[in-house]
Amino acid sequence: MQPSTTSNGVSHVAKALPLLSQVNEEIRSDSEDQAFWWGALSETLASLLQANQYSNEVQLHYLRWFYKWIPSALGPRPNNGKPFYGSWITHDLSPFEYSLNWKEKSPKQTIRFTIEAVTKQAGTATDPINQLGAKQFLDSVSKDVPGLDLTRFNQFLEATNVPNDSVDDAIAKHPAHFPRSRVWIAFDLEHSGKLMAKSYFLPHWRAIQSGISANTIISDAVRACNGADGSSYDAPLAAIMSYLSTFSRQEDAPQIGLLSNDCLADTPGMRLKVYFRSEADTLAKAKDMYNLGGRLKGANIDASLKGISDFWYHLFGLDSSDPASNDKVCIGDNKCIFVYEMRSTKGSEPDIDVKFHIPMWEIGKTDTQPGKTDGQISELMASWFESHGHPDLAARYKSDLDTAFPKHGITGKGIGTHTYLSITHTPKTGLYMTMYLSPNLPKYYF
Fold first, then answer.
1. What angle do CA 377, 439, 333 make, to 5 degrees?
2. Which residue stretches of 231-282 are H helix?
3. Could you tell me if 354 and 304 are in contact, meaning their C-beta atoms sit under 8 angstroms apart?
4. pTM
């Protein structure tokens, strides 16, 4: 799948991806920035769509839609190896991330991706911390995403906004190691051809500027969504905050990182998601945080905890019959993430589903060892899929990634393409897992 350059300035791939070749023949880019991002990202997208058996019609739809909207949303291309604005999503500082969603009860996998929209004004006096990019992008793309609704988006954007007259103060206080991102946008590419948009708000800029904690900023934003009919998010918020209060030292408590919503019209019981980074370095700690110290109960929570335990034993090669396995430290550096999907209720019982995110690039990493390669992780995932009724995916998972990321050395010693892996359980899907995948743009394209 070696690219060559065509007269329209974008990469052209051989017959291995005929639908991408067809789209490349159709497009006429007059922007070097658009051509750069398309060249860096389109082959992986086309490869993942084809490998996961999207219909030809839907593949063409997504490729054309992606070309129309996404490269331009990523802003100016890097210059001399340095990004134009410098925000990032992944551990390797890429401003873009793919993901592959697997459902135990479905034969199909879903491709998704996440970006931070950047304009030419980002980082300039007009928009020093890129507070305009996400809204400008979603306002524009809304005509091409049926059902897109920005009511909650606009509400959360305002709740996490830094006032213009306080931006300089926020920049002066901003720690160098903190991400510069303000808002991420993600799309699920359904096999039907329907796009599902989601937004993710990082509260730290507002917290740094205002002195108000990120917990308070997000809690207030969520409570503002309580319904006039008496439905509210008070019960799930109370369960989360009650659990956090059990940590005697603030530095030991999970740290809130994101507030997220689906960009759909508000409906009763609509989910809002809050993301916490945690120092859950053992299975026992992970399970405790997953069910909020026993505050979340029921058959689905039990099924999720069993799935997490089984996968943890599989991933780390632990003996499930040995009680010591639950307390073995397997992950460090405060990198696990827990996502609490809250739904409004009229009662006092919290309605929360939880996803547990494991930092896969950290697996096996020590002070002297770089961690498991993507090839080794792929083999672990293949055996997992095989044992859970998906032999086709098991047989092709590693080769699919090697084809989609040909520069990454998936079958060699490459490390870091797998970023996070999330796991949960729902009655409809059974086990539900998402593998997040970085294109490592700084290394291979900047």
1. 60
2. 234-244
3. yes
4. 0.94
